[in-house]
Design goal:
Layout: E1 5-6, H1 16-26, H2 44-61, E2 67-72, H3 75-87, E3 93-98, H4 101-111, E4 115-121, E5 145-148, E6 150-151, E7 156-157, E8 168-171, E9 188-192, E10 203-208, H5 209-212, H6 225-230, H7 240-256, H8 258-278, E11 285-286, E12 297-301, H9 305-317, E13 320-321, E14 332-335, H10 342-359
Parallel strand pairs: 1-13, 3-4, 3-5, 5-8, 8-9
Antiparallel strand pairs: 2-10, 6-7, 9-10, 11-12, 12-14
Helix pairs in contact: 1-7, 2-7, 3-4, 7-8, 8-10
This protein binds pyridoxal-5'-phosphate (PLP).
Amino acid sequence: MSRVFNFSAGPATLPEAVLREAQTDLVDYKGAGMSIMEMSHRGKEYDAVHNEAIASLKRLMGLGDDYAIIFQTGGASSQFAFVPMNLLGPGQTADYVHAGAWGGKAIKEAKNVGAVNVAADTSKEKPSRMPKDSELKLTPGAAYLHVTTNETIEGSQMKSIPNVDAPLVADMSSDILSRPMDFTKFGLIYAGAQKNIGPSGVTLVAIRKDLAERGSDKIPVILRYKTHVEQNSLYNTPPCFGIYMIALVTRWIDAQGGLAALAKINVEKAALLYSAIDGSGGYYRGTAAVEDRSDMNVTYRLPSEELEAKFIAEAARHGLKGLKGHRSVGGIRASIYNAFPRAGVETLVAFMREFQSKNG
Ligand SMILES: *Cc1c(COP(=O)(O)O)cnc(C)c1O
């Protein structure tokens, strides 16, 4: 059996060591005689896994007791609704940054709930980029400012945290735990797990406890952050297997040396690919502004759509899978999250040189 280099944007490649450990545990979890998928979410085995995942995430993010980590379902997309439902009160306005497709979806959903001010819109710009702090048209007393730290489709990434008074809410689905960051600058962080920290089906939310209290009692109980904080994500049956996988991934992150060590590797992997793009004499063209280039999703074009289709097909035959850009933008997208191995990037770079020399 051989694994391919999987550049998929999400669900994305997981550390092989984590998959193997999950395989070992699958049929009989540590002598329990059953798997994690089959046991009570209120039993002692699962309880240990659940609380390990929470404690490890808090530690990796440097969050104290004023924050809660909760696990939900419905993906990051459900958070597009959860956030305004809980944090945007009547008469208030929420500020949103629109720098790409995911930020746009968050805005659309928030408008269904309350008043939204688009503080900056770079979503139609090419190359794609993140707005600077000085460009933000903020609402005084805004309920919060929502940002997308990494626009997965456009391949642009925020390199610094905006300095604002309002609580910061961030969709970090595609770069969570990929670099050290002052996570305490945020009031709420959410991420679908399937890019950097686990399988699909579980959504991570880190929330400052005072913000969780904001939700009105008119919101259905299941849709209140408060409920999930108070019940430690056990109000309803949580996505147990996904949370178990997150616990294994956090152990793997520790084994890599933590976020600083991961960031170093991530920057090196991305730099290899960007220098291949920049050194191709214009054959490959990056689609994001150089200063905002994502270390997670490397997006680029070839001279024609025909060549792009040929590139994707030939790459797949070389064991380089999932390189097709998002259907809304086309082109090539190499997603190289935490678990994506450096050897895969080196193989892609060699393939790009060979492809160019044959099709240049
Ligand atoms: C993938 C992605 C989403 C959507 O996640 P789902 O879990 O499919 O809802 C939202 N935001 C960003 C930044 C993403 O990369």
